[in-house]
Amino acid sequence: MTLTRLRKALGIAALAGAALGTAAPASAERPDDGLVFTYQEALAGKKVAFVPITMGFDLTQGWMAAVQRDADRLGYELTIRDPNWNVDAGAQAIEQLINEKPDLLIVHNNDMQAYTKLIRRAMSAGINVIQMNLKTPVNSDAFVGGDWYDVGVKTAQEAARFCGEGTSGKIAVVQGPVTAPPNQLGVAGVEDALAEYPEIQIVSNQAADWDASKARSIASTIIKQHGDLCAFIGLWDNMDVGIAAAIREAGLTDQIKLVSTGGGNQEFGCTNLENGSFASYVKVDTRDQAHQLAETIQILLQTRPEPGSQPFGLYTENKILTPDNIGPGSCWTLDGIRAGD
């Protein structure tokens, strides 16, 4: 049919419709591109559960802001069982969820071993499992989070940058619980990196268990013992604000540099760079992790692999922030992630 004939035919059809009192529908049913309906059906009504270390800090709040936004948009159900730092309560929550059989379980491991058997049990029960940010030696369906060895390497390199010629070369490390993945892997990275700098000496390496008050006390004692200390390496910004307080109290902010790491929250990351509390900051971006987690949920709910059969990882790019290179978008806020930032 030629274009002219087609136009005439369409015109006749329109006139016929008008004569019969019919009209075009106000909105047409969306076309199927071959995948979109399958995508929607794979997500709608599914059950996703998360067992964090706690929902009481910025990292877990940032991740769940993005996941909840996706859950609302795509129609799956998000359940959070918060053990509030209690490993036994976390284990109990995971056991209950295994019995409830969600479609997907997200586990935020408190240490390297506590939940390994439960992760295996969940997968044996047919549940796909994501490990979030803190990984056990067991592979599950996915890991989304930090490369903690590389974080340790980068913090050490930054400390060495501050503590070269003309300084004492003395560095102190303040870590969290010794069984936590960021410590076991991060401290190994620190020690391996500093082996390349024979002029640098680690004069103290103590655990503050992620507690800012404990970190402050430890740092104060170290400063008294080593008045010529050049730098602290801290392994989490929420804890490291205690180290910064001890340095201020000693009146040594010009001498002692604090290299910290964290998820890039505006309050704990960029603000502390701007006010001089942190000299350098290795950002393990929670905002990026939040989006990666939400996307990983979508992928696993669509593909539904046999649990544990095709493990994959999404490791966060570590970025070094300093007072000289931060800008308006360097850090994130919870409201921003909720809005899709």
TrEMBL record:
Keyword Signal among record annotations: yes
Q: Which Pfam families match?
A: Peripla_BP_4
Q: Where is each Periplasmic binding protein domain found?
A: 48-302
Q: What is its main location?
A: other
GO terms of molecular function: carbohydrate binding
Q: Does the UniProt entry include the keyword Signal?
A: yes
Residues making up the signal peptide according to the UniProt record: 1-28
Q: Provide the Gene Ontology terms for cellular component.
A: cell envelope
Question: Which ranges does the record mark as transmembrane?
Answer: none
Location within or outside the cell: Cell envelope
Family recorded in the similarity comment: Belongs to the bacterial solute-binding protein 2 family.
PANTHER family membership: D-ALLOSE-BINDING PERIPLASMIC PROTEIN-RELATED
What is the protein's given name? ABC transporter substrate-binding protein
Gene source species:
Celeribacter indicus
